[in-house]
């Protein structure tokens, strides 16, 4: 980052941190924080306070430009200091990634209709991509995409089932990914198209909200049945049949923004565990004076430092213009695993208090467990990194 | 085990497994399974079915004798195949340990009054031992015991605060541990006494039920305020001032029975994850045909085998008449850590489904996380094992 | 084990331990312990002392019967208390496995010629199975076997290259595994035959002895070129074309005997590290009083206990008559990984002394590193366990 | 780094890498690479080639200035691509740290006498700091320093025993650390002084060279007896009694330079393992196409990336003028542990070849094992990081 960027990002980050620590944190015990995330009412209340404090959608500048990824890292980590923080200041998934994508490839009309209310914090959005594994649909493997979009006159008609659609309940804006070569015209190559839709929509039925181990995302994660959803061409996001390419554009920054937010949450858990260990005694001394505890906190400090460095490294790669597919896979694996170790140690250091909801540590632990699955489980990323190592090695072996 | 024991235990275990798999498992989605465990009504319903099936309190023989620990392992593992299983067949904590303790040191009158309804499955009990860390009370370190019992005429008067009292809400029987040398008579040595009390009791106030990551124990975990609780001598369990000794007697078997039950639950999670991996496909093949998945399941098989061996080894030590303090510490650490690895891998193998409550795997993961804390966190056990290693080594060095 | 077995094995084990601790251990600093194992002269000297002490080949009874596997475990663990111990008392690989195999399937004449001198401790043997990976030969994957045996009149003629042939240098007896369907007669199915040969032999050339991280095996590990080796039918071990079956018979006990011996060595390393930690001070207290050190020793105690239980469990499976292929894979993975953790912690506890050859801990660490590869790397075993899990699960799913 | 620094460092690093890969690597099989490191003759030969290639002492500029730490990282990683590389180009420990220290605090005369020949690559040096644990001397705990320096007229007289003195054999320059408040004048506070001495010296006797698991350092690691070593004041390095302060100055950069060099060596091991996995087949496909192998290489890529980031982060801290005590502890723990995981996986991926000296992987594994001990074992660093966390937390708790 150059000096101007650093100062700009630091200033925003400082205000976001102040807001999250003083205004958002007390809401963590609000009964409107349910098992499917904070209620819509609570989201509105938090955002209204963020708007007043000038920290709403802090990573997008007034003209619509986004901060660089490195700057975004600085800001999003602070927004994540509470599990409620990202929702409060509008840096949460999936909105953050959806705003980025629409901003990059949407038309002016689409931006006005779909993007503006998201940036204003007046609406939420959902990204209809993954499908139920039980039906052989696309989970981690996008080539298995089964939802179809076929032409019918000047409409597209979309049918399929989507699973794990975060925030679908309560969202006003949806991006639906569907297989657009339906095989009807003999085209065998899989291609996909993205569509923008207003929500709720009579052809999109929320079958159920999954009960999951995590509980920070408003609307939870839905299973959704799409039947005969008709959309016009002006709702195609970008060009038709280019959905996989756009998914790649969204992929790395979205993946990395998860790392940023959860880094903040885990940092907070570490602060809580550290203060606990520095004030409670057992077996004749402060907990932290037991090496068994002190070492865990030292390992936390190292893991948090490493995770931060991986985030910033990958952010710089993205700022350099690369898709960063492999780098963001490496960052996702390293950061998710490191943050889980940290969260797990925080629970352990705090004993009975650690497994209770008396502090936010218990929730952070649950959220990070889910994070090791969301946006691609560790194993899928390792598989993809190994493929790249093979490609690079074989081309080196054969090329020289 | 000799042949007679093996046959007896196998026969009981088989019936318990059949009951849990066919009758209990369907209740796992019953809405009466709340975040503080199954409701009292649900517990009654399950026990009534267990009674009818002849599998209630299966580890205690009609005459009151307990199965050996090795036999108990065989039975309790099966009862644990569902998180609801132990409650259903009355092998759950803390009742199982409390029945063992009262059976060993209670008077005939105490057994009739307090033990009989527990064995009959008509009552639940609570063990009032641990105290809030925030107040410097006894968590893992019993020497910090702050609840006091002082003589007042022919009564004892008990005052203090207890925390993490599992099942206190809804219990009919309580065992209260209190410091019985109050310092008033100049006695500096810490001693403790155990008292049997009927619950609910006006002098014992449930301040709150903790919200915790686990959710299998009826009544959850309570914070309890005891103020001026007056009991007569006939409610002293065993001899006065011998509480720490009795705690030792209860300790190892209770600790080990946790290992047994959770071994069952984790075995079930592994079955579910294995079936998932053998029926779902991604990237062109069954999940289990991906080494990244298959290796995790292989590691599960190894961990479950090792955990079972540690349980049986420790059970045999206890059956041999030893207190098994060190052996049960070793077993607790090894089993809790192994089962957590297994549960974590099951979640990971199942991806999005793994972090959802669509299967019981998600709950098992949460329960086992808590288990790494309950009955002494891993670190306290390692500390105690290291102390023993030092003692043995120094005596060897100096003794020879 | 029944009582008679237990007593018999304990008595032998006790004598073996006494011999290893008092007679063998002082030889650990003998300069004849080279990087390719103890010299032949040293082996003879040690065996002569073992013979005199009545502990030579202690796991084979005078009549030629072997102890049960459970008994063998008791004895071989003690023989392993020094890396020199197994060679000294003739329980070392590959002789131990070769004696077992020839004893099981050799003819009377073969036993007299090849087995008797091995049992007497007058000869060593080698098992010519694995082949160089560089040439695409059979490493962990036996189906890649490239050494061929073809009929020529009443002879077999064997050609090929073998790698990692432990103890080939100095051995008098060899078992050579070769592909015996040469494709000449249109037989596509891979089959193999085992041959017994006297060594050294002019048609078997030791190309080089590998320099390896381990250094306990006399003769080291050789790369061997076999060219036009002619043998008669009476040198076929068992039946022709049944080599893979015999390899399976040898496999599990040989694999498990490695676990037994290395368990002994690692136990010794743990004793040394424990005594070190109980006598050295840093930062104001004994090393063991630092939890960072004490916890490592506690983890060692747990790992050693678990490894012992896995060995005994697998031994009992083999004694029950099963091939134990999957069980010995599970035991190999669990034991090799556990012993490596133990050895690594011993090094760490002892700091600079741990990485020096001032104690045998450094060698044990190196040996166990190699052990994680020898007899099948961990990954091959996990692959094979996963295959079994799949088979069992699918048959369960389809069978019900 | 600014642009000028980046270009300068890249250019040097490129030349160093070219030299190491083409000139040094073939020497790895030179028989003069012994178990106590390369012989003096071999060192001279390598350095003569480095001098000719213009890559000798590449991190020190002609005028005597050192590259920044960030630049040094770039260069030293490349020098480490072979275990012989640092010795060849004169970036090895302990010379690199000794040159830095003498350069910072030596007098002009001292620099001429002791530093110039080191920079010219004509001499080697040793740092006499650590003492034998067996005698209760200073290992990781400097407060236990037992070697004494007492005034005798205008001389200092030094007595003591030092252990693990890397490169003492063959060194021309020594820095000796001794306790300089001898208690004679009633001064209770421990202080230490550093002295520069010419080697070999009749009062400094090499008692023995330790046999250790590592083998890259010329001269190995010596145990040294210092008896009545008399030095004049002009041989005091810096001010008397300030030895602990100077040790701190040397500490972090020396620690970090280990990380840099071993990062290079491990990168090389990873390259070798990757090429192995991309060219060898087992069970029907290339090794790397087995997820069990591919995942290990992916984990290597992540670990190497993280280690590099930690090194650069700590280098930047040092370049900012901080002592970086805590940061270099964090970097040491993270990097040593990560590199060990990488080296261990490389061995495992390569199977039998991995544990043989057919490639340099086996040596790298052994070197990195020692590195987890050298310059402070992981546990000492965690202890020190935990102390800092406690200080920071308590000051935060009390300060606000």
TrEMBL record, chains A, B, C, D:
Gene3D superfamilies: Acyl-CoA dehydrogenase/oxidase, N-terminal domain, Butyryl-CoA Dehydrogenase, subunit A, domain 2, Butyryl-CoA Dehydrogenase, subunit A, domain 3. Keywords: FAD, Flavoprotein, Oxidoreductase. InterPro entries: Acyl-CoA_dehydrogenase, Acyl-CoA_Oxase/DH_mid-dom, Acyl-CoA_Oxase/DH_mid-dom_sf, AcylCo_DH-like_C, AcylCo_DH/oxidase_C, AcylCoA_DH/ox_N, AcylCoA_DH/ox_N_sf, AcylCoA_DH/oxidase_NM_dom_sf. The keyword Disulfide bond does not apply. Residues 6-122 form the Acyl-CoA dehydrogenase/oxidase N-terminal domain. GO terms for biological process: fatty acid beta-oxidation using acyl-CoA dehydrogenase. CDD domains: ACAD. Residues 126-211 form the Acyl-CoA oxidase/dehydrogenase middle domain. GO terms for molecular function: acyl-CoA dehydrogenase activity; flavin adenine dinucleotide binding. One of its GO terms (cellular component) is cytoplasm. Residues 242-389 form the Acyl-CoA dehydrogenase/oxidase C-terminal domain. Its cofactor is FAD. Homodimer. Belongs to the acyl-CoA dehydrogenase family. This is Acyl-CoA dehydrogenase. It comes from Caballeronia mineralivorans PML1(12).
